[in-house]
Amino acid sequence: MIISELIGKFGKYQFWICVLIFANKFGVAFHQMAIVFLAPPAVYYCPGNATCCDSPAYNTSLFTRTIVTEWNLICEKSFLKDITQTLFQFGVLFGSLVFGIISDRYGRKSTLITSVVLEVITGIMSSFMPDFWSFTIIRMILGISVGGIMVVGFVIVMEYVGNDIRYVISALYHVPFTLGHMLLALFGYYIRDYMYYQLAISVVNVFLLIYICVLPESPRWLLAVNKTFEAITLIERIAKTNNMDIEDISTKIELFQLEHKPKKSSVLELFRSPNLRKNILIMSFNWLVSSYCFYGVTFYISHLTGDIFINVAAMGCVCLCGCLIAIPILKFMNRKTIVILGNVICSISILIIAFVPEGIVSIVFGCIGVMFSFMLLVIVYLYCSEMFPTVVRNAAIGISSMSARMGSMIAPFVAALRPYGQWCAPVGFGIFPLVAALLCILLPETKDCELMTTIEEGEAFGKSRTRNPNGNEIT
Predict the structure, then answer these.
(1) Per-residue pLDDT tens over the stretch 306-323
(2) What is the distance between the alpha carbons of residues 122 and 140, in angstroms, rounded to a whole number?
């Protein structure tokens, strides 16, 4: 697209954007995975060795206070600790969809700033809630903000970088999440009281309020909604920062706008057009499966054996490996091929857990399944952003991310099937990646393709053989 030609594919300005946006992924990781230390398994004693009682004596040698011990979420109320995480993920689901649609209509900048402000406020508020339901409701609203940050932040980055470097930035975008996952173990180790722990992981996000002053709009979005003058002003500033030629930028942009004639589109366009409808449904299912397996298997194997702090840090390391492995794979392989093979390997690894004794072997295969499911999440983020045009890109990622949250909401309940048989949970997780792999055969390839702008381009994409910027034919 003309934007990459005018501002460069990756320069000082794009580097600054990446630093700004990548920083918010630490907070996303803190809040997404916080439940591990907010509601760890509680050890308690009842008078007369009874199984349940109204006033249990809790063992506080590991954690001085958790939401379980604070509100007695044991026995008949034990399901409530899963409810609080399910409602948080429902919030992420809702936020992914709503903020995705809003950002396509009103802009990336204002939507991301709103999400960040909401995250900071609700994160701190949740630390001081006096009862379970107020805590859970505020965390659900916190989840809404996290959903917005995840979706809008990624799209901003993808709309700034050129297609040659996009696969690298897409994978690196998730590295702060994995580092945040590992840092969470450090927070949990040194802060054993849930209230101070929640406050600490929320206060560190206050620095993101700098977005109000320095975050720019996406030039692609400005062009897509026909805000040509603002787009020209921003593109000239970016080009100047990147030491690019700023002459004739205005003329080139105006000619581009005349040729493409951008018009407003809504999320319904994704379902009115047959090709886009097929792509969004299959892509959403892949997001659901990847998230379902990642959160479910992570939860499942973290309770098999070992120290909780080491387990959390180790899972973060596994995910970091998945991010780094994705970079060379994305460079040399097609997106569709990677997603198909990744789903197959993920499925096999998880299914093996059903047939081997619990212990080191099951943990190793579980880690392989977690790594591939997380790597698939990294890749489908990029794959989805390349598959849909600018006017509905955020909505497409929002819908897909919403599907991912559905997977993460279901996952804890499937992982809880372990008492009914060793094979139950692994089979429940392992079957679906095979289905996702088969459906991916119907998707188009997007490697080395410029990002599309209009609905017409998106509907035509993949229907016939076209050429990428390198002159190679794609389907």
Answers:
(1) 678 888 888 889 889 988
(2) 9
